[in-house]
Amino acid sequence: MVRRPLRLLVPLLTVMALAVSACGGSTGNGGSGDDGGSIKIGAWIPLSGAQAASGVPQAAGANAYFASLNENGGINGRQVEWIVKDNAYDPQQTVQAARQLVGQDQVVAIVNANGVAPSEAAFPFVLEQSQVPVVNHYGGIEPWYEPARPLLFGTQTLYEDQAAAMAAWAVESGARRLLVVHDDPKAFADVAAQIEPAAKRADPSTSVTTLPVKLGTTDYAPVVSSVRAAAPDAVMLIVPAPEAAAYLKEAKLQGVAAPAYGYAPTASSTTVTLAGDAAEGFRAVSLTKVPSDPSPEMQQFRDAMAKYAPDQPADFSTLLGYANAAVFAEIAKTINGPITAESIVAAYENAGNVSTGVAPDMSFSDTVHIGTREVLRTVVQGGEWVAEGDFVSAPERDRS
């Protein structure tokens, strides 16, 4: 499949967004849906800048879902108008996008937005001042959901829980000496800190050491030399996918045999593409099913991508956007009557066992605003990600 350069995909996504909204007919009363017109929702996503590598495929996956949904009748006969603004992963640009979406476009919810720090800059205006819900955010952090924050709902297992799941998996596989390689910013260090308590809960005899690495490191030779000297049973990687690939390539060169585990950002086609055959045997927890899963729901995902976003691969990055869109649609379908900010919040607070077939089942309540704590154990075999069993819940953590 021919991949278009990233700079060409941004205008393509703009056209796709317009195509999705064109199915909607009359937008009615500011997108509120009170007159039975289209349902207006929005998002800010980095379609340009350094983070566009995640934002562009995420938007393509969600666009493919909404386009397919509209072609098949929409939500209870109503078309969905998903309006996307480029935030370039910049807080100031995100606030501007939020003001446009809420004030001008009059969306009833922010669905499938991207950018933790940029989103936090927009939350006071969106959540507190405007009382517009933000649901199914791409990524997120523990303080957003514990305790539950009004109008904010998430669909992705927290990074901290991903780390705990990695540790439990390694210990179950026989590892007792774990070495955690993590990037040095606090966000990475906080996630890495969950490895040791989870490992010791699984087996108190487990020892855990950490090796901080500068964010953006490309030369992993010194890092792998340190790993080799430590002789761990397993290596836990809390780094972005390109760095995970750099580690795996260097580990193969230096003959480090200890299996490597990664959290969800490393369960990516990027890791396999960049690492090549060095990725063989790499293990990572995933937030969704693997892209090649044979289930009917996953075939629908691949068909939607082929039809509505043929220049983007049907991989983990597009699947996350697709899955977040699907969860919103399934919950919105339970609303009887007007689809408003208030009715969306009420629907989420009463949503249990929301099934999309591509991600874990989700359940929310008025006190639980994160839909799942489950991950899928995946491993690279024959150059492709394959699943080890079904979704499993992350082990309980001490949150005191």
Describe the structure.
The structure is a single chain. With 400 residues, this protein is of the alpha/beta class. It has 14 helices and 13 strands. The strands form three sheets. Strands 6, 7, 8, 9, 10, 11, 12 and 13 form an eight-stranded mixed β-sheet that branches. Strand 3 (110-111), helix 4 and strand 4 (134-135) form a beta-alpha-beta unit. Helix 2 packs across helix 13 (316-332) and helix 9 crosses helix 10. The longest helix is centred in the first third of the chain and has 20 residues, at 52-71. The protein is globular and about 65 Å long.
Summarize, please.
The chain has 400 residues and is an alpha/beta fold.
Number of strands: 13
Written as H for each helix and E for each strand, in order along the chain, the element string is HEHEHEHEHEHEHHEHEHEHEHHHEEE
In terms of per-residue confidence, which ranges show pLDDT below 50 for 5 or more consecutive residues? Answer: 1-19, 21-34
Structural class: alpha/beta
Please indicate the percent range of residues in DSSP E strands (runs of 2 or more): 15-25%
Oligomerization: single chain
Number of H- or I-type helical stretches: 14
Average residue pLDDT: 91
- As a whole number of angstroms, the C-alpha radius of gyration is 21 Å
**Portion in helices:** 40-55%
Q: Separation of termini? A: 49 Å
Tags for this model:
eight-stranded mixed beta sheet, single chain, alpha/beta, 14 helices, three-stranded parallel beta sheet, globular, 400 residues, disordered N terminus
